Amino acid sequence: MNPHLDKLQSYPFEKLRQLFSQVSPNPHYSAISLGMGEPKHPTPKFIQQALIDHIDGLANYPTTVGSDALRGAIAGWLERRYGIPKLNPATQVLPVNGSREALFALTQTVVDPAAKSLVVSPNPFYQIYEGAAYLAGAEPYFVNSDPSRNFGCDYDSIPAEVWQRVALLFLCSPGNPTGAVLSLTDWENLFALSERYNFIIAADECYSEIYHGSEAPLGAMQAAHMLGLSTVERPYARLVVFSSLSKRSNVPGMRSGFVAGDAEVLKKFLLYRTYHGGAMSPAVQAASVAAWNDETHVEQNREKYRAKFAAITPLLQPHLQVELPDAGFYLWADVSQTGLSDTEFAQRLYAEYNVTVLPGSYLARDAHGINPGRNRIRMALVAETEEGLEAAQRIVQFCKSLTQ
């Protein structure tokens, strides 16, 4: 067996299942889960219809590189969304079966297992980053998010001897679970580090279209273009961006996303995926073209999230330390004022009010003396507003009961 498998921790939801294994939820309440970040808004009908209309494509083997129509639709969306020069669909764009498998596969592509490399990850983080690093023969190096920096990471704190071993840097902006968005200054600093130490940046942007302010989050390729890195001899050097339709278009079951950026990296990634077997179904490709070419449903979806967060966040603020995030569909709340740890809070809330939240410590690792997820909970506001409000009201009742 691959010995690196023994380094993997249980997934957060398996830890949650174990936490709840000896608990029976209060039968007077129906179950409400804020635990998993699975979009619950309805899938737009036109995307469903596009899938149905092209179901005959199941009779064909798909190519790993995907159709010209899909790569062109993705390149067009990137141009419109970020105001960047249109990418070459043949060399700078690659469809993938959701960002999760692509994040994992890219790590296997770029890491030399004989080099004793490091993979830098924010902390807390999406657990695929850690697993991908271990299974590629590298070690993860965690950089803790800092509430005083809007949950940003202090990359300047990483010593030069660490940077010299880095093969890959994972970034998530907007962040999971914090919702924090990197600034242009942040990107400028990271691009300079990438050039100095010759590592690849993997920018995970799957939450980019759910935001709560008037300005859309700055994207990695947008930042690179603003800094003049899109027109150099090697455009977007050492930068690859990941995005997905799952959150944007409420189609997590379609498993449809893309990787875009540095053509040299994507050439090697395509070679890896050709052997790995990462081709997308032709029917899913056709439905994806329809989704990337339409913004109306995205705007409507975003407004539903804005209304939901505007209604729910103020209800919770008198009882938990929680703020409206920059973007994404999570609330990242500090529960320390309740006198309970994050795991105790989650377990008792489930037992007494049948509401599921995810302990923040399950989403982070002990690094540099702390676990930055400890005493926090992640609440995924993915269901319709009515259900989210009911969950929030139960959480308020639970918090009030702790002070009585």
CATH homologous superfamily descriptor of the largest domain: Type I PLP-dependent aspartate aminotransferase-like (Major domain)
Detail the poorly predicted runs.
none
Tally of domains: 2
Q: Tell me the number of strands.
A: 13
Major sheet: order of its strands? 2-9-8-7-6-3-4-5
Task: Give the termini separation.
Answer: 54 Å
Structural class: alpha/beta
- CATH architecture title of the largest domain: 3-Layer(aba) Sandwich
Number of helices: 14
Radius of gyration of CA atoms, rounded to a whole number: 21 Å
Order of helices and strands: HEHHEHEHEEHEHEHEHEHHHEHEEEH
* CATH fold label of the largest domain: Aspartate Aminotransferase, domain 2
Mean pLDDT: 97
Largest sheet: 8 strands, mixed
Report the portion of residues in β strands: 5-15%
CATH class wording of the largest domain: Alpha Beta
EC number: 2.6.1.17
GO biological process, one term: lysine biosynthetic process via diaminopimelate
Protein name: Succinyldiaminopimelate transaminase
Keywords: Aminotransferase, Transferase
